[in-house]
Structures are given as structure tokens and as C-alpha cells.
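Exercise 3.2. Students should predict the tertiary structure of the chain below and write it as C-alpha cells, then compare their answer with the key that follows.

Predict this chain's 3D structure.
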Amino acid sequence: MGTGEETSAVVMATAKSETEDLSTMLGMTVSQIVQAVGGFEGDTAAMVRASVRTAERVFATLDTCDDVIDEASATGREAAGRLRELLASESAADVATELEKLEAVAAHVRRTGESRRLMNRVLGREDQDTPMAGAGRLTMGTLPARPSFFGENDSAEDLFAIAMDREQQKPRLKHVHAQRIDHVATHLVAVVTQAAATGFADERAASESLDEARLAFDLWQTCLAERDQDLV
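Answer key:
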């Protein structure tokens, strides 16, 4: 065998070894790798090497996207913990700031979405992820009922009696309002935790979750205002 043929054989053997190593790492057959990245006009060794380089670039891009998702998930979990504390301390402005930060995180993940879809399409992995269930909706009607002491036709004497009764009922009022506020706060944290579990990678579910978190925040503020009104 001549020197040129020996060199070609070495190149082929090296390329074959690299491709098989990559195949083992990716859980794909050599033919699947070549098919995924397309053909190559030229000798077989060049085609294999080009396929390997392309597959490596694809997976490097996916690794970068996965890193973004992992970081977003960690950020979301940390934010859920902070929100739990901020809601307990009734720090409305800080809660709003945390929600704004989460929306920025979700937008960053969303910008990697097209790259992830394209790379997965190259590898024949479309629709591999199971869609996450959307966030459940919480409304004022689903909360414990707010006590009402006044009727439409109450007279002045009735109102005086009601005022006295209301003062006596303040402990119960405090308990009911605390329940309502805690219910909404728990829901808000659960919604954020659910979105963070997948790193906001499911764009539809992430958008629904953050929208629901905003609505829950508004509802929480309404509950605080009603409590303050009833307990003056």
C-alpha cells in the first residue's frame, strides 16, 4: 500500500473513531448523525469529519440553550422563595420588582427558543417535551367570603348596633382576611414555582403563569385594601 493510501486509511480510521465516539455520547447511530447534518460532496472521510463538526456545533448550541434554561430555573426558584417572604411582610413594591425580574428572565429564555427548536429539528427531536399544564386561575369568588355586616335598608339604630357588633367581631374579621391574603399569596408563589420548574422553557405555559402571577398580585393588593378598610 502506498503512502497516500496509508494516509487515507489513517484519516478514515480516525474519522470513524471520532464519529463512533460522538455516536456513543449522543445516543445516535453514525448514519443518524450523517443524515441529521446532511450529505457532503467529496470523499467519505471528509463527509464524516464535516458531519462530526456540524453535530458538535449543534450540540454546543443546545448545551448553551440548556444552560440558559437551567439558570432561569434556579433564578425562578430563588425568586419564589423571596416572593414568599415579601408577601408575608406585605412589601408590595418589592413583590412587583421580583415579578418584573421574572418577566425579563422568561424573555431571555424565549429568545433561545428558536435556536432550540431549530437544533432539535436538525436532530429529528421535534415535540419531545411534554407541554406543561397552564396555571390555574384564582379569582375573588374562589376566596373565603368577606364578612358583610351592612344591609341596604339598615336604619341609624341598626347601623349603631351593627357597628358595635362589628367591633366584637374584629377577631373573626382578622382571621377571615388573613385567610384570604394567605390564600392568594400561596397561589402566587405556587404559580411562579411551577413556571420555574421547567426554566420557563414552555413559552405558552410560562406566559400564562406570569400573567396569572400578575393577576394574583393585583388580587393580593385588593385583599390587603379590603382588610384595612374592614379593620379600621
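Discussion points: Residues 150-160 have pLDDT under 50 and may be disordered. The CA atoms of residues 71 and 199 lie 7 Å apart.
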